[in-house]
Design goal:
By secondary structure, this protein is mostly helical. It has a single domain (about 20-195), classed as Iron/manganese superoxide dismutase, C-terminal domain (minor pseudopilin epsh fold). About 45% of the residues lie in helices and about 10% in strands. The chain has seven helices and three strands, in the order H-H-H-H-E-E-E-H-H-H. The protein has a three-stranded antiparallel beta sheet with strand order 2-1-3. The chain is globular.
């Protein structure tokens, strides 16, 4: 059975950047629904993060929905871990790599924000690494996951309307700028440290 992560903070901990109602609805309605749908589609014992690479093991007629809902769980799991009450910066190997590739964290942030603002429609902006530790910032549509492209997602911002619309209405740009006040790179730093 596939489950979502436990929300790592209280529903109101992202105030005033993301309101309590948005976090509650996003986590309990959107996020959990992907897991519920995935469990209706399959009772496979393949680990969640391996589904994108082993999608051919599922019936052809179900693959699209399985991949979509698995991506929905994976992407939301990472998104909720990419935020916290108190923002945190990258550290250790990840910080060194960001400084090496982007000059400093502020330049990295500018590139990430620019990439996010260029996403057309719904999806996510990800910081990913390949198997050699190379960092890239990518946009993916809907519930595509970087795992489908042999990339490891480290950090993400959800750019679906349900992530921001109750507070920001159609002003996605302000959401993209403001969310950095709650950005949490502890999870990304630990992932990168353990990989490399």
């Amino acid at each position: 059975m596939y489950n979502t992560i436990k929300l790592p903070y209280a529903y109101n901990d992202l105030e005033p950047i993301i309101d309590e109602e948005t976090v509650y609805t996003h986590y309990n309605k959107h996020h959990k629904t992907y897991a519920e749908n995935l469990n209706k589609l399959t009772s496979s014992n393949i680990p969640l993060e391996e589904i994108p690479k082993k999608i051919e093991q599922f019936p052809l007629k179900d693959r699209g929905q399985i991949l979509y809902n698995a991506g929905g769980v994976l992407n939301h799991d990472l998104y909720f871990q990419s935020l916290n009450r108190n923002k945190s910066l990258p550290k250790g190997k990840l910080l060194n790599k960001i400084n090496n590739d982007y000059g400093n964290f502020e330049n990295f942030k500018k590139v990430f924000i620019s990439k996010s603002k260029n996403l057309v429609g719904s999806g996510y902006t990800f910081l990913v690494t390949d198997e050699n530790g190379n960092l890239t910032i990518i946009n993916l549509a809907n519930q595509e996951t970087p795992l489908s492209y042999d990339l490891i997602p480290l950090f993400t911002i959800d750019l679906w309307e349900h992530a921001y619309y109750l507070k920001y209405k159609n002003n996605r740009s302000d959401y993209i700028e403001n969310i950095w006040n709650k950005a949490n790179f502890d999870h990304a730093s630990t992932l990168y440290e353990n990989l490399f």
